[in-house]
Amino acid sequence: MNYTCTLNPSIDYIMHVADFKAEDLNRATQTAYFAGGKGINVSRLLKRLDVDTTALGYIGGFTGAFIRETLESAGIAHQFIEINEPTRVNVKLKSGGETEINGPGPSITTEQLALLFGQIRSLGKQDALVAAGNAPGSVPADIYARMADICEENGTRFIADTSSAALRDLIGKKMFLVKPNHHELGELFDTTISSIEDIVSYARKLHETGIENVIVSMGGEGAIFVNRDHAWKAETPKGTVKNSVGAGDSMVAGFLAAYEKSGDYEQAFTYAVAAGSATAFSDDLGERQYIEELVSQVKLTSI
């Protein structure tokens, strides 16, 4: 089973305003609500690619109920831990560009934290855990590192999609996959990434710390993949970017789905790039048919 863990989920409330004016009354022309959070996005896209998944994390209140109902309607299993406050709402205002207003994270108690660690300890060698997104301030700063240690003890594949200090704390941990962007990769090594050669060099340094597979996303410029045996650069398909939410999560899901089915890293990386592109070119996460169409447009070059 592929498990995802979203410590700080949300309802993403998308509002389209033709000509936003600050400190004035604005009327939205279009709105939409989505169950948000990086791990939840991974679960949603895995399901679209016919891969079973179970979502872990914390939800509460009427907003948490919306997330639960959304996943259940999509046939996605979950083992959420209930908390005593509503899950946050994040507002994405689209008016020419995009402005984000994210709600505060929840307060997680020691008992609730212990319940989550208990769930992770129950995972085995046939399972994978995707820990994705930023953690709320109420949990220990090294929570992802603790998850990685538990997964290593149990032989569970551990995938991290986070940034900043949380990603830095994971250096030296055994992991199956990480997916920083090129800016985050530079931050990890206190340097500025200025070339493809830099990305490959520092991605290899990450691999040498115990990470089996490294994907470095470069937005519209493509992506780099590095592991023990391969280094590839992918050119992304051409399209109009509509959505900045979930593209990176879709890359993780695309990689996992294709690797589970084929065991082939080249195919997994190709699907990762196609899935990320499909989401970037869509209003929501990419649909399976669209991802399949884009697979043939992803060009890999050995580097």
Give structural notes.
The protein has helices at 38-48, 61-73, 110-121, 143-154, 164-169, 182-188, 196-208, 247-262, 265-280, 288-295; strands at 2-6, 10-16, 30-36, 53-59, 77-78, 81-82, 88-95, 97-102, 128-132, 157-161, 175-178, 211-217, 223-226, 231-235, 299-302. The chain is of the alpha/beta class. Strands 1, 4, 5, 6, 9, 10, 11, 12, 13, 14 and 15 form an eleven-stranded mixed sheet that branches. A four-stranded mixed sheet has the order 3-2-7-8. The radius of gyration is 19 Å and the shape is globular. The model has no long low-confidence stretch (mean pLDDT 95).
SSE order, one letter for each helix or strand: EEEHEHEEEEHEHEHEHHEEEHHHE
Strand content: 25-35%
Which stretches are poorly predicted, pLDDT < 50 over at least 5 residues? none
What radius of gyration results from the CA coordinates? 19 Å
Q: Overall 3D geometry?
A: globular
Mean of pLDDT: 95
What is the CA–CA distance across the termini?
A: 33 Å
Which structural class do you get from the secondary structure elements?
alpha/beta
Biggest pleated-sheet summary: 11 strands, mixed
What is the number of strand segments? Answer: 15
Estimate percent helicity: 25-40%
Q: How many alpha or pi helices? A: 10
